[in-house]
Specification:
This protein has 447 residues and is an alpha/beta fold. Helix content is 36%, strand content 22%. 40% of the residues are buried. It binds S-adenosyl-L-homocysteine, iron/sulfur cluster and FE3-S4 cluster.
């Protein structure tokens, strides 16, 4: 009988990309994906370590897997439990201590070793635990499957891994290791395979995607701006996006790409974290609010209709009411159209971990709620603006088997739903908006 696996993914888009590659690895080994617990011969959790809550999700998930594993054993069925990703990288052997029934711990740069790790468990060569935590992004990308069985209309493509910036609050430089940029040729080849299989939009990924500096043709170094020019030449590729960009790494070629490459969408996620220079400095972000605003204005000059989203950290040690007000003021200036915001979570191993917590929990919660209400009102206003107007939407999904409702994203990254009779999947349609909501839009059906 065909063996089956279940995979659960937490964390950022880079984990989503990695999970897709892990699926391809398991398909190659003859496994089939399932969503049914009791059928799963392999359980895989791809984890995130960015905040304490993200980490806790792993252990609550493992509690469930333990029970399933025990029940399957009663029917003489063995189950392999794999913990992958950033918690695996950060905690390593600790995971086996807290959850001894875990079979494999594999860090974020070692997925390509999964076939041999699984084989060893199946052959009972390694009775208890198997661990792979090497930082070797080059060999990871060299050895990941090139096939693309899961066909997507909008696809992620990781071009850069890791981070050298060491913001004081952040685990990424420790969980993903130092910066690595994939060679241009490899990226173009992957993009061509994706588009051949029906992809119309590619979202270029990296923890610091605009710090990309891969080897290009004639051994010349390429930056992200140049890479976008190159990718735009792929005929069947209609849309390009990139994330997550760091304000410090915005560069001339990238501004030019925003100006000249029409396939590059007018939406940019550019995390600022705080609107106070004092806090930005304490975080080691290496830019000021004024510099950030200059970048925003510069991009707007290149592409008039561009809109922005951001990340915010609330309650960083030392954040006063006045610092917080400055963050609110910044939001009023930029009018972000969507954003992520979280209360600061101290992470073991980071430099900020031992800083004294200066703010009461209730105060942090109140600040977060004020900030989120402000962000929400700008997002709602932005969406409302499009009622009775048209947007370009790439339809990438249907909501159910009957394919009655199609979903896609506008050029500004708004989720648009439409109850359509004709099949519009994979097509970009200029469609009229009927209704707006906080996080989505409803369009008038096309006939
Ligand atoms: N490289 C990107 C962000 C990657 S992490 C950048 O520098 O902008 C994604 C987001 O998680 C960050 O932008 C930040 O807002 C949030 N984050 C990271 N560490 C955090 C922590 N310790 N507590 C709360 N939020 C955190
Ligand atoms: Fe983390 Fe800062 Fe690197 Fe972003 S730039 S991944 S926040 S260390
Ligand atoms: Fe989380 Fe790792 Fe991404 S810590 S946010 S999954 S890089």
């Amino acid at each position: 009988m065909l063996k089956k696996f279940k995979i659960k993914t937490f964390g950022c888009q880079m984990n989503v990309y990695d999970s897709q590659k892990i699926c391809e690895i398991l398909y190659k080994l003859g496994y089939k994906k399932t969503s049914i617990d009791r059928d799963s011969d392999i359980f895989l959790i791809n984890t995130c370590h960015i905040r304490e809550k993200a980490k806790q999700k792993l252990y609550s998930e493992l509690g469930k897997i333990y029970k399933i594993k025990k029940n399957r054993l009663k029917n003489n069925l063995s189950t392999i439990c794999v913990v992958a990703g950033c918690v695996a990288q950060a905690e390593g052997k600790e995971i086996f201590k807290r959850a001894p029934f875990v079979d494999i711990v594999v860090g974020s740069q070692a997925y390509h070793k999964l076939p041999s790790l699984i084989k060893n468990i199946n052959l009972k060569l390694k009775k208890k635990l198997s661990i792979e935590l090497d930082f070797a992004p080059k060999s990871k990308f060299d050895n990941l499957p090139k096939e693309n069985i899961q066909k997507e209309i909008s696809s992620y493509l990781t071009i850069q891994e890791g981070c050298n910036k060491f913001c004081k609050f952040c685990v990424v430089p420790y969980t993903r290791g130092p910066e690595y940029s994939r060679p241009v040729e490899e990226i173009i080849n992957e993009a061509k395979i994706l588009t051949k299989n029906g992809t119309k939009e590619i979202i270029l990924l990296g923890q610091n995607v605009n710090a990309y500096h891969g080897v290009g043709p004639n051994k010349k170094e390429f930056n992200l701006g140049k890479l976008i020019y190159f990718l735009a030449k792929i005929k069947n590729l209609k849309r390009i996006r990139y994330m997550t960009a760091h304000p410090k790494d915005m560069h001339e070629d990238l501004f030019k790409a925003h100006k000249n490459v029409k396939k590059l969408m007018p939406f940019l996620h550019l995390p600022i974290q705080s609107g106070s220079n004092k806090i930005l400095k304490a975080m080691n972000r290496n830019y000021t609010v004024e510099e950030y605003l200059k970048i925003i204005n510069r991009i707007k000059k290149c592409r008039e209709d561009i809109v922005f989203s951001s990340d915010f950290i609330i309650g960083y040690p030392g954040e006063t009411k006045d610092d917080f007000k400055k963050t609110l003021n910044l939001i009023d200036k930029v009018k972000f159209v969507q954003s992520f915001s979280f209360i600061y979570s101290p992470r073991p191993g980071t430099t900020a971990y031992n800083l004294k917590d200066t703010i009461k929990q209730e105060e942090k919660k109140e600040r977060l709620s004020i900030l989120q209400n402000k962000l929400k009102s700008y997002q709602e206003d932005f969406n409302k603006n499009f009622v009775k107007k048209s947007l370009n939407v790439l339809f990438s999904n249907t909501s159910n088997e009957k394919k009655i409702q199609s979903m896609g994203y506008s050029q500004y990254m708004q989720l648009v739903r439409v109850k359509n009779k004709i099949d519009i999947l994979g097509k970009i349609k200029n469609i009229k908006i009927k209704k707006s909501f906080y996080k989505s839009l409803e369009a008038t059906p096309l006939i």
